[in-house]
């Protein structure tokens, strides 16, 4: 009838690393949402986390609560225009036809970056170093161990997709990833599921971030995704407009529990909760 989950993580906030809990997936059955179950769940998971010696947590919410440290905006990139219009996810703009919309969002059949391939277990040590080093530039970021990196980012069909590029010397220079989050489509005669990809962690060293993310869009479309979503955190502002992402209508607020720190800009955030 109700659920809350949390996983342990090492998180860096303004240069200080702390063991925290990443709290996610708070949900209550719709018939019980007026029964004050959410505070009970939060109090209980706080108690259990405290018993492990951890007293801080990081979480996100779509609503503005006291103590928000950052606010990020979702952006959406159409991959399958006809389907998104048919299910009501988006609509045709005035004087826009379906044929013109499909042409506007058309992507090449194959990625342009040579050597971009799915990450394998053998790539984990080098890819881990690349991503962890990149995340050092942000004020709020996860600090992955190598095992955690492998757990969260090794490709799993229908869960997460990760790709690396290796140079001629065998050094991994670029990395991109997205996770899969599908939604049920109710009351539509043609479609049952919306297949969505969400930008995860991306590092571009030998190509521009825009070029790398364009390839990521192509790979996601080839996997059957209908829409590609991204927050305007990290350096994502660099590619959102050029790659025809549209601004969403909601913000995602970031919170750090039991840890006082100044608020930060959206591009200071280097943490994505899956």
General description of the model:
The chain has helices at residues 37-50, 81-86, 98-104, 124-135, 146-153, 209-222, 237-240; strands at residues 2-13, 16-28, 56-61, 68-78, 116-118, 140-142, 160-166, 172-184, 193-199, 227-231, 246-257, 269-270. A twelve-stranded mixed sheet has the order 5-7-8-9-10-4-11-3-2-1-6-12, with helices on both faces. The chain is α+β, with helices and mostly antiparallel strands.
Rg on CA atoms, Å: 20 Å
The total strand number stands at 12
Structural class: alpha+beta
Report the span from N to C terminus.
22 Å
Portion in strands: 25-35%
Shape type: globular
Task: Round the mean pLDDT to the nearest integer and report it.
Answer: 95
Strand order of the largest sheet: 5-7-8-9-10-4-11-3-2-1-6-12
Order of helices and strands: EEHEEHHEHEHEEEHEHEE
Which bin fits the share of residues in helices? 10-25%
Count of helical segments?
A: 7
Outline of the structure:
The chain has 274 residues and is α+β, with helices and mostly antiparallel strands. The protein contains 7 helices and 12 strands.
Topology:
Elements (H helix, E strand, L loop, with lengths): L1 E12 L2 E13 L8 H14 L5 E6 L6 E11 L2 H6 L11 H7 L11 E3 L5 H12 L4 E3 L3 H8 L6 E7 L5 E13 L8 E7 L9 H14 L4 E5 L5 H4 L5 E12 L11 E2 L4
Parallel strand pairs: 2-3, 6-12, 9-10
Antiparallel strand pairs: 1-2, 1-6, 3-11, 4-10, 4-11, 5-7, 7-8, 8-9
Which terms summarize this structure?
274 residues; globular; 12 strands; 34% strand; 12-stranded mixed β-sheet; alpha+beta
């Amino acid at each position: 009838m109700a659920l809350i989950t949390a996983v342990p993580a090492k998180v860096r906030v303004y240069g200080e690393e702390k063991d925290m809990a990443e709290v996610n997936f708070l949900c209550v059955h719709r018939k019980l949402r007026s029964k004050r179950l959410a505070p009970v769940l939060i109090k209980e998971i706080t108690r259990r986390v405290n018993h492990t010696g951890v007293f801080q947590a990081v979480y996100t919410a779509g609503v503005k609560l006291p103590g928000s440290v950052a606010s990020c905006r979702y952006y959406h990139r159409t991959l399958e225009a006809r389907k998104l219009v048919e299910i009501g996810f988006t609509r045709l703009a005035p004087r826009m036809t379906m044929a013109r919309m499909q042409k506007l969002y058309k992507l090449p059949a194959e990625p342009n970056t040579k050597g971009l391939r799915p990450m394998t277990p053998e790539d984990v040590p080098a890819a881990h170093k690349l991503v962890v080093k990149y995340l050092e530039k942000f004020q709020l970021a996860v600090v992955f161990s190598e095992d955690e990196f492998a757990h969260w980012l090794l490709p799993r069909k229908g869960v997460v997709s990760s790709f690396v590029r290796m140079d001629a010397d065998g050094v991994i220079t670029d990395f991109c990833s997205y996770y899969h989050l599908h939604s049920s489509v109710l009351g539509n005669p043609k479609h049952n599921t919306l297949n969505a990809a969400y930008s995860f962690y991306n590092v571009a060293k030998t190509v521009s971030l825009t070029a790398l993310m364009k390839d990521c869009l192509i790979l996601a479309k080839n996997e059957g995704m209908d829409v590609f979503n991204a927050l305007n955190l990290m350096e994502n502002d660099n590619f959102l407009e050029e790659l025809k992402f549209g601004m969403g209508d909601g913000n995602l607020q970031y919170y750090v529990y039991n840890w006082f720190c100044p608020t930060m800009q959206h591009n200071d955030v280097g943490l994505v909760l899956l």
